[in-house]
Write a structure and sequence with these properties.
CATH topology of the domain at 396-684: Methylamine Dehydrogenase, Chain H
Radius of gyration: 35 Å
Distance between the termini: 77 Å
Strand order of the largest sheet: 1-2-3-5-4
Shape: globular
Number of strands: 69
Helix content: 10-25%
Largest sheet: 5 strands, antiparallel
CATH superfamily of the domain at 396-684: YVTN repeat-like/Quinoprotein amine dehydrogenase
Number of helices: 17
Structural class: alpha+beta
Strand content: 25-35%
């Protein structure tokens, strides 16, 4: 290790700063805000007015050239890595003084300690963890854990790229947009790299800095100061008052992590930052790290004992059971890592980022390879997620920085322009170029296809804009105004061309003649972009003078006041109805404006870097933005919130442009790295199969009745399982199992019921009469007993003879439900807020009524008949519950399963040991009989949960909600197994069928639907490669070489082998347009609905329902006719 460099002290650094005049291009230096290793940290403002932190490292601070060059090389290595994780400070630019006296790097600025992101340079104080601790002394455990997980992930990124931080401590942790980030990155160096001894006493481990283990040690000490509130030199002391605090258990769990991280022996510390994050995640989820650590110590003892332990076991007579149990303990420890991966993927699912969830789920499958049961769940989770992911339908790796992309008006072609001066039109389907390349041009800014697709308009910095013949590539006309042009656009009818210039002007030309029609003056700096409204009467312009402006093309005058921004405005476009404008700004936001008033509408759409483009979808419901933060994002145009499903498209580099296809289902994204991707979001539309009949109780079968004939079908196979039965009835209903059918008809006396055996297709009972035409009939599980109820009366009959078993039961209050015990001779009736148990065949009461605090919503027996489960709810915000009772005595079994509102349904697991409850409080809970606490944290829905059920295996759960969502969950963790299914109608019943290969749901209208549950069949290797392809920012952490060439090769190979993952069928596209039309209709957005219905009419020609729907939408859209 090198000796410390005396010149690297703070005094020497400041002295060097005084002797050197510092200049950073396009930035104004505002003052010193700190000093780090070997340099000064300055507050600066860019030309766009964005505040930045700039670190300047001086050559004079080093005795030799070698360490100075090493620092410069290190920051250059770190610069691309800085964008791979949000917990690393983003390095925006690295530069060097031409004279060699210093180098600098520009970073995102930390929040202000008091004002957050609202920076006042006159009183700016950076928000660091040290500043937070100075104010608050110690942080709550939950906050410490969140910070620790973020920093572990950031360190993990450094370590995976062969770098270490060397000086992790509270003053080197800054908060930007509230996110904790590793700062003072000038200390970052290679693993094992020889250099001066850097670090801070107390945070540096006994062996010194420069290793992964040393960084983990430092992070442990940081968490000690933050969570315990003591100086790191006091480690491992815990103040007595903390041992008496309310969160003592949490403090001790966090301390278990800290102790392991800060072990004096590097071999006994966490082997990676990821492993430390996994333990912190356990603490976050309320699990016990201390218990797991005890297991680890036991396993370590057993391993160290080796052969001696085996011999001792023989001598002492230790049983094989002990050895097997140790293997189980080892498996439990191994599950921690898998649990962390699944938790990370689930977190991405909660954000709607399905693509971002895939790498975690794929890695979890890899680690679960030896567990057949877990593998089934992993594959289902991945299959459900993949099914609703956007499809990467086309891709180009051009190796040149892309400046512009645009779809043709029919969506079949895409024009791609690059900075090196070429433009070309490609076939979206095949990826092949349609026509010759148009070149050479100089610094090509934009390329736009004419509405008829015959000509291409280019704007470049060679002091001209030009019009080209697309088919031949020949020049049609050059617009020579002796000024650079930065943007150009055709009018909607293709007759006019508008050009944005560097001399602050906008020129409008006639396309055919090339004559200049208008010159629009008003901007004070160069104009970046122009766009016509859809009528072709108004133009919007975006400029570096920090404004967007509207122009009346009939008069050539400006409309209203400029739309003022805080930085350069890069892009602007109209909504489809021309009532709003969205602008893209270099202040990291896109903003929406009212055209008529010029007022900003709603909150800005925020990115983490410069926003280059922003546009509305063709239906006006969504906004698409593209940013140098490496993402294209989709936003709800009404709320300005990210879309709930698939709101982010990650790119391999900084994104310069993104645009919608004319249909709105496809998005083209282009980056500075030369990669252009087309995504299709219509794949998220999963159509359930409509069930054309009435389901049995278990959902496995359904019955169809027409003209007095009934036939029963297998739900999954859609195959008949019964002969056609001439039931001559107005209504038919299957029993719970689907093996018996109850046919009902009316006469003058009331109702007649007859029971049929489904397998034989023959009646097994005479007609059983009921005086009330509203009567409901229920069968027991063997079909031998029938109960019918109406009003306050319940009657029970022997099926084959039709004889009444005992006199009618009159409960004086309306009976709302009846259920048979599957094994005992008893039934239960629900009357208001009470449940009554009756013995059969005598009809005597088994016990006193089982009273509830409000109306009973559900009652069912356990599979073995031992228990009865009930739930209750009312119309008020009452804390209700479900309760298990002894089916023989009516005695309560265990405590109540409580919710914060009404409990709408409850159900037993197949083994009868667990219960799922769902409620109006939007939560579902899993409980063990006899225990009053949920087995897993309750899982939340977006709306009231209406029904919940276990799968046949008991491993999964399905819940149905009032908002039409059907959710699939893992029963032993409460984690979702994928994004929810949706059908737009409130769900009242859900069931797993076909050996858990599908799920059915019944809506409030009585209609039913079937969704297949498709586990993925891809190999682990293919899944990891696919995840890296779809998540370019995660490619390095997955150790995939995704160069331009390899990315394209992986995409082509996977598309060839698995075309269904890279395409959208016509059926899916039609369903997507149908769903979008319904959403527009619900929002009274009739113009948007017509966009989708017009396309739906093309996809379903001759469909009378679509034609009628389209005509109705047209009438509601201000009486306008359909196109």
């Amino acid at each position: 290790m090198e000796k410390p460099t005396p010149g690297a002290g703070a005094k020497a650094v400041r002295a060097a700063a005084r002797r050197v005049h510092i200049e950073v291009p396009e930035h104004r230096l505002l003052g010193r805000i700190g000093g780090g290793s070997y340099g000064e940290v300055l507050l600066a403002s860019s030309l766009m007015g964005t505040f930045r932190a700039i670190k300047v490292v001086f050559r004079r601070s080093f005795e030799d050239e070698a360490p100075y060059r090493r620092e410069f090389d290190g920051i250059r290595r770190f610069e691309p890595i800085s964008r791979t994780h949000e917990s690393l400070v983003d390095v925006l630019q690295v530069g060097q003084d031409p004279s060699g006296q210093y180098f600098y790097y520009i970073m995102e600025l930390a929040d202000d300690l008091e004002r957050g992101s609202n920076i006042d340079p006159d009183c700016y104080r950076p928000r660091t963890l040290r500043a937070e601790l100075d104010l608050r002394k110690r942080l709550p455990v939950a906050e410490c854990v969140r910070i620790g997980i973020s920093l572990c992930e950031g360190l993990g990124q450094l370590h995976e790229h062969g770098l270490v931080h060397r000086d992790v401590k509270p003053s080197n942790i800054v908060f930007a947009h509230g996110v904790p980030k590793l700062a003072d990155i000038g200390l970052v160096g290679g693993l094992g790299e020889a250099r001066s001894f850097v670090g801070t006493p107390g945070f540096v481990p006994p062996e010194g800095p420069g290793s992964k283990e040393a960084d983990i040690y430092s992070l442990g000490k940081l968490l000690y100061e933050a969570g315990v509130g003591k100086d790191r030199q006091s480690f491992p002391e815990i103040p007595p008052e903390l041992l008496d605090a309310q969160d003592t258990d949490s403090i001790l769990e966090l301390n278990e992590v800290i102790v392991k991280a800060c072990h004096a022996n590097p071999a006994d510390r966490y082997h990676s930052a990821g492993a430390m994050a996994e333990d912190l995640a356990l603490v976050q989820r309320g699990k016990s790290v201390r218990r797991l650590r005890l297991l680890e110590r036991r396993l370590k003892f057993v391993t160290r004992g080796g052969a001696i332990a085996v011999g001792a076991a023989a001598v002492l007579g230790v049983t094989v059971w002990g050895i097997l149990r140790d293997h189980q303990l080892q498996a439990q420890i191994n599950q921690r890592q898998i649990g962390g991966l699944v938790a990370d993927g689930t977190h991405a699912l909660a954000r709607g980022d399905l693509i971002g969830a895939l790498p975690y789920f794929a890695d979890g499958l890899r680690l679960d390879a030896g567990d057949k049961v877990r593998t089934m769940t992993d594959r289902l989770r991945i299959g459900l997620t993949l099914a609703q992911c956007p499809r990467l339908v086309q891709s180009w790796s051009l190796g040149k920085e892309i400046s512009d992309v645009e779809f043709s008006t029919d969506g079949r072609s895409l024009v791609i322009a690059d900075w090196q001066g070429t433009a070309r039109v490609y076939d979206v389907s095949s990826g092949k170029p349609w026509f010759p390349e148009i070149s050479p041009l100089w610094y090509l800014e934009t390329a736009s296809l004419s509405p008829d697709g015959r000509q291409l308009l280019t704007a470049s910095e060679d002091q001209s804009a030009a019009l080209w013949d697309v088919k031949t590539g020949e020049l049609v006309r050059r617009f020579t105004a002796h000024e650079r042009t930065y943007g150009g656009a055709f009018s909607p009818d293709g007759r006019l061309i508008a050009l944005a210039s560097t001399n602050n002007l906008i020129r409008v030309y006639e396309r055919e003649s090339g004559l200049e029609r208008l010159v629009l003056r008003g901007h004070s700096e160069r104009v970046e972009h122009v766009a016509f409204n859809h009528e072709g009467t108004i133009l919007v312009s975006a400029s570096n003078d920090q404004t967007a402006r509207l122009w009346d093309l009939r008069t050539g005058t400006e409309i209203g006041q400029p739309l003022a921004h805080k930085s350069w405005v890069k892009d602007a476009s109209f909504s489809p109805d021309d009532r709003q404008i969205v602008t893209a700004c270099f202040d990291h936001t896109a903003r929406v404006w009212d055209v008529k008033t010029g007022r900003e509408i709603g909150p800005p759409l925020e990115h983490h870097d410069l926003v280059f483009t922003a546009s509305f979808s063709p239906d006006g419901q969504t906004i698409l933005t593209a940013s140098l933060d490496g993402t294209a994002r989709l936003w709800d145009a009404a709320t300005h919130q990210p879309l709930p499903l698939n709101p982010v498209f990650l790119h391999s580099g900084r994104v310069r442009h993104a645009c919608f296809s004319p249909e709105g289902n496809r998005i083209a994204v282009a980056g500075v790295d030369g990669w252009v991707a087309i995504w299709d979001v219509a794949a998220s539309a999963i159509r359930p199969r409509t069930i054309p009949g009435t389901l049995s109780g278990n959902g496995e079968r359904y019955v169809v009745c027409s003209n007095g004939w009934a036939e029963v079908f297998d739900t999954a196979a859609q195959a008949p399982v019964s002969p056609r039965m001439q039931v001559a009835a107005a209504g038919v209903r299957l029993d719970a199992s689907g093996h018996f059918l109850v046919a009902s008809s009316t006469n003058r006396q009331g109702m007649l019921f007859r029971v049929w055996a489904v397998d034989s297709g023959r009646p097994i009972s005479p007609a059983i009469s009921a005086s009330d035409s509203s009567a409901v009939a229920i069968l027991n599980n063997t079909g031998t007993t029938l109960a019918k109820y109406a009003g306050t009366m319940v009657e029970v009959f022997e099926t084959r003879s039709g004889a009444r078993l005992f006199p009618p039961l009159d409960r004086r209050q309306p009976v709302t439900a009846v259920a048979f015990n599957p094994t005992l001779h008893s039934l239960v009736t629900v009357v208001g807020d009470s449940v009554l148990l009756w013995s059969l065949p005598g009809g005597t009461s088994q016990c006193a009524p089982l009273h509830h605090i409000c109306g009973v919503t559900h009652a069912e027996f356990s599979p073995d008949g031992r228990y009865l489960l009930t739930s209750c709810a009312d119309s008020q915000l009452t804390e209700c519950y479900a309760q298990v009772w002894d089916a023989a005595t009516g005695a309560p079994v265990g405590p109540r399963f409580r919710h914060h509102d009404g409990v709408t349904s409850a159900s037993f697991s197949p083994d009868g040991r667990r219960v799922i409850t769902v409620g109006e409080d939007r939560f579902a809970g899993v409980w063990r009989i006899g225990q009053g606490s949920p087995l897993v944290p309750p899982f939340e829905h977006k709306a009231q949960a209406q029904d919940g059920v276990f799968s046949r295996s008991g491993r999964w759960l399905a819940t149905g909600c009032h908002d039409g969502e059907v959710c699939i969950w893992e029963s032993d963790t409460g984690l979702p197994l994928g994004p929810p299914f949706w059908n737009g109608e409130p769900i009242v019943r859900v069931r797993f069928i076909a050996h858990d290969r599908g799920v059915v749901a019944v809506g409030s209208s009585g209609h039913a639907w079937y969704w297949e549950l498709p586990p993925t069949t891809l190999s682990v290797t293919d899944l990891l490669a696919l995840s890296a392809l779809l998540n370019p920012n995660l490619a390095l952490s997955l150790n995939h070489d995704l160069s331009q060439t390899s990315r394209q090769e992986i995409w082509k190979r996977h598309r060839s082998e698995h075309p269904e993952l890279f395409s959208v069928s016509a059926q899916q596209l039609a369903l997507w347009h149908e769903q979008q039309a319904r959403q527009c209709e619900a929002d009274n957005a009739w113009p948007g609905a017509l966009v989708h219905l017009n396309r739906l009419a093309d996809l379903r020609p001759g469909d009378p329902k679509v034609a009628q729907w389209r005509q109705e939408a047209a009438r509601k859209f201000a009486g306008k006719e359909v196109r």
